[in-house]
Design brief:
Layout (H helix, E strand, L loop, with lengths): L30 E4 L7 E3 L1 H14 L2 E4 L15
Antiparallel strand pairs: 1-2, 1-3
The protein binds zinc ion.
The site of zinc ion has 8 residues, from helix 1.
Length: 80
């Protein structure tokens, strides 16, 4: 019996590399604001998120902040 390495479950981030910023349109999105549920959401990269988040908190009906993904280290299970 080998000793198994402790694994940390991956954080279930909702935004992924396919989600791009609607502000600068090229960077990966780490935040999403729903301004009006009937309309599509707006995605923001870390830079644009920080630039607009104060205003978004006033007008958005829902905010998804995944900027922690930039500073979270995910330990991969390579034993499988
Ligand atoms: Zn941006």
């Amino acid at each position: 019996m080998g000793k198994r390495a402790e694994t940390i479950p991956p954080v279930p981030w909702i935004l992924n590399a396919a989600d791009r910023c609607d502000g600068c349109s090229h960077a990966r999105a780490y935040g999403r604001a729903t301004i009006n549920p009937a309309k599509s959401d707006l995605n923001f990269c870390y830079h644009c998120w920080n630039r607009h988040v104060a205003r978004l908190r006033e007008v958005a009906v829902d905010l998804l902040d995944e900027t922690d993904a930039l500073t979270t280290v995910t330990k991969l299970d390579v034993s499988a």
